[in-house]
Amino acid sequence: MLSTLLVVLPIFALIFAGWAAAKTRILGGQASTELNRFVVYLALPALLFDITATTNLHEIWQPAFIGAFCLASFIIFGLAFLSPSNKGQDLTTKAIDGLNASYPNTAYMGFPLSMLAFGSASMPLVAMATIITVCVIFAVAITLIELSRQKASHKAKLIFKTIISLARNPLLFSPALGIAYSLSGLPLPESAHTFLKLLGGAASPCALVALGLFLAASKPLTRSNISSISYLVSLKLVAQPVLTYIAAVYIFQLPPLLTHTAVLITALPTGTGSFMLAEYYRTDATITSNTILVSTMISVLTVSAYLSLIA
Predict the structure, then answer these.
(1) At what angle do helices 256-266 and 111-118 cross, to 10 degrees?
(2) Going by C-beta distance under 8 Å and a sequence separation of 6 or more, which residues neighbour residue 161?
(3) Average pLDDT score over residue span 85-103
(4) Most buried of 32, 75, 100, 163, CB within 10 angstroms?
(5) How far apart are the C-alpha atoms of 72 and 247, rounded to whole Å?
(6) H or E element: which one contains 123?
(7) DSSP character at residue 271
(8) 117 lies in which domain range?
(9) CATH number at residue 69
(10) Coiled coil where (predicted)?
């Protein structure tokens, strides 16, 4: 548990830094929105391009691992998307709730915890899970949101307008360009790699500070909010890893290393991606921000319990 806490502690510290900056008025009321815009338009696209452009996709290709990970993730996405509490909500809210329940914090927590538990052999698997999380699950949520926001009288026009909007989204075209660059076989120049590392390295810290800023300005939670957060956290920390284990062992019959790495990754708390989307599309992020915070807190116990169980 101490090892897990040491990995999670910097996340709490960054959230608290944002909360304290808001409470002491070091940063103004619009700081959360502006900081999130920096992440969405600059830092995160740089990170996504860097990850996809510098990863040899052929070396980390594991179809069965991808199948187990995706199957469990999309079932959980669907359960959150179709939650009774979302009845009457717009497609944007439903899609973001889908992310709240299925989007693990792979980049920030997945690598150190997997290295701690399984060693360097698990690193290619974590890299693949990270790419799936930010390029596939994220893309599905963005597509649903864009579909709900386009206005057109004919389906063909609606699809065309959605495609154009998706093509302009930096969170989609940056990893697409990175994958294309990786498949080209061209080496990334050292100066470009350094630039992307510096800019992309700001993505997670800034997103967590923005989350703290938002939490400081949030109104008290209602009973309905608490019920929704509890449901989403349960899906994320319990249902998703259980489904991943079932898919890995009984459907795809993965060996132990692949099974336990997949389960550990899906047992991680909700990442900041859903919060960034909620802020980007200017929808209420109260449930999202608290889901991230609560799931991160509880994951210290659940992840530690899982690692103890398989030790």
Answers:
(1) 150
(2) 150, 151, 152
(3) 86
(4) 100
(5) 7
(6) helix 123-132
(7) -
(8) 2-310
(9) 1.20.1530
(10) none
